[in-house]
């Protein structure tokens, strides 16, 4: 008989539980308490079936023993009847129904020898054959019941083995599911820890981003202030340069006017020299005429001395005039050189100022571009942080939901 420990590992396949075995419900959904309850019900049902089968088997064995005993008695009676004498037949005629009352004692003579001379024997033979046929039919029925009992026992044993196998599979599946659930819980705990670390890291990154945003705001304010100061300095330097340029322009204009006056004076001197040269030529012609007259009137030595003295005075006059012209020419050249130097210095200063202004403008543009790029980068990082925060919050809700489901 199947023990309780074996019945705990089997499933019931009788009528009330057949839908559970063949229905749409997944065996993995059966809980431990349901398995225990079904195992107890199956054990009780199998015990009842086993007791019923044992009782039927005992009854069949008893009936088979009785049947075999009756067959032996019938065979003995038939053998005794075949070997009995005719004298026994007369004694038997006084009690013709004796074999009907007790088939185990006296039987009539075989009808095969005298069926037509002994009607009572024929009747007894017929009754004997009828009882033998009834015994054969009963024996066949008992054998069928025995075969059905064996078949039922085998079916019950097969069902018990199948139930035990399925119960073992369910136990293994339940254990695997428990291990999987524990692994999922461990994984959820690890993911929760990882999520907490990620949230802490995200909070730290948000704090760093906030600090960088504040620093960027301070740098932007400082840059705006620096731009204002630089623009004010540039405007001041531009005004100073324009004022200096205007002064130098006036100085150059004044020097140009002086040069123009000097040029006019030189032109006037040149005209005077030309006039004087013409007058000197005219004077020379007049002197030649006078010389001719004096040569006739004055002695030659005195005239020569007087002429040498005049020539010396004229040479001194020419020398003084040449020195004055050379001095004026040198002054004009020096002034022109200084004007050229001033002009080159002003041009160089102007170019330097323009280059400085261009560099400052380029630097301002680069700094503004860098600030804009940093602002865009901070905006992008802030958007990424917000997206990551939303994603982590969504994942946290999913993990909490799954954790609650596993706990439930």
Structure overview:
With 408 residues, the chain is an all-alpha fold. The protein has a domain at 4-196. Helix content is 88%, strand content 0%. It has helices spanning 4-7, 18-22, 32-83, 86-93, 98-101, 119-297, 300-407. The protein is rod-shaped. The two termini are 40 Å apart.
What percent of the residues sit in helical stretches (DSSP H or I)?
over 70%
Alpha-carbon distance between the two ends: 40 Å
The main β sheet shows up as: none
Radius of gyration: 75 Å
Tally of DSSP helical segments:
7
Compact summary:
This protein is mainly alpha-helical and 408 residues long.
Question: What is the fold's blueprint, element by element?
Answer:
Elements: H1 4-7, H2 18-22, H3 32-83, H4 86-93, H5 98-101, H6 119-297, H7 300-407
Helix pairs in contact: 3-6, 6-7
Keywords:
mainly alpha, 88% helix, disordered N terminus, 408 residues
């Amino acid at each position: 008989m199947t023990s309780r420990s074996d019945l705990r590992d089997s499933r019931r396949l009788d009528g009330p539980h057949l839908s559970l075995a063949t229905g749409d419900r997944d065996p993995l959904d059966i809980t431990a308490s349901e398995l225990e309850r079904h195992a107890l019900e199956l054990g009780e049902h199998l015990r009842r079936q086993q007791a019923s089968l044992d009782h039927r088997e005992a009854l069949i064995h008893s009936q088979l023993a009785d049947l075999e005993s009756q067959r032996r008695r019938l065979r003995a009676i038939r053998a005794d009847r075949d070997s009995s004498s005719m004298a026994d037949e007369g004694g038997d005629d006084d009690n013709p129904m004796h074999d009907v009352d007790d088939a185990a004692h006296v039987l009539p003579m075989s009808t095969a020898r005298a069926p037509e001379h002994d009607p009572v024997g024929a009747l007894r033979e017929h009754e004997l054959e009828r009882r033998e046929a009834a015994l054969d039919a009963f024996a066949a029925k008992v054998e069928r019941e025995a075969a059905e009992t064996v078949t039922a026992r085998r079916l019950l044993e097969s069902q018990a083995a199948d139930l035990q196998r399925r119960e073992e599979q369910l136990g293994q599946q339940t254990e695997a599911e428990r291990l999987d659930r524990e692994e999922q819980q461990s994984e959820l705990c690890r993911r929760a820890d990882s999520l907490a670390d990620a949230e802490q890291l995200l909070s730290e990154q948000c704090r760093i981003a906030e600090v960088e945003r504040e620093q960027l705001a301070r740098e932007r304010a400082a840059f705006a202030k620096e731009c204002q100061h630089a623009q004010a300095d540039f405007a001041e330097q531009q005004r100073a340069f324009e004022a200096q340029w205007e002064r130098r322009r006036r100085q150059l204009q004044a020097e140009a006017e002086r040069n123009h006056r000097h040029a006019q004076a030189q032109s006037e001197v040149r005209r005077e020299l030309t006039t004087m040269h013409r007058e000197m030529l005219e004077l020379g012609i007049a002197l030649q005429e006078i010389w001719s007259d004096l040569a006739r009137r004055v002695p030659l030595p005195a005239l020569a001395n007087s002429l040498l003295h005049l020539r010396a005075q004229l040479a001194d006059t020419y020398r003084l005039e040449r020195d004055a012209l050379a001095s004026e020419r040198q002054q004009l050249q020096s002034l022109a050189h200084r004007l050229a130097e001033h002009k080159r210095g002003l041009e160089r200063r102007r170019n330097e100022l323009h280059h400085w202004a261009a560099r400052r403008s380029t630097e301002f543009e680069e700094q503004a571009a860098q600030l804009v790029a940093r602002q865009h980068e901070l905006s992008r990082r802030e958007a990424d942080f917000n997206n990551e925060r939303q994603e982590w919050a969504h994942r946290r809700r999913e993990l909490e939901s799954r954790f609650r489901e596993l706990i439930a």
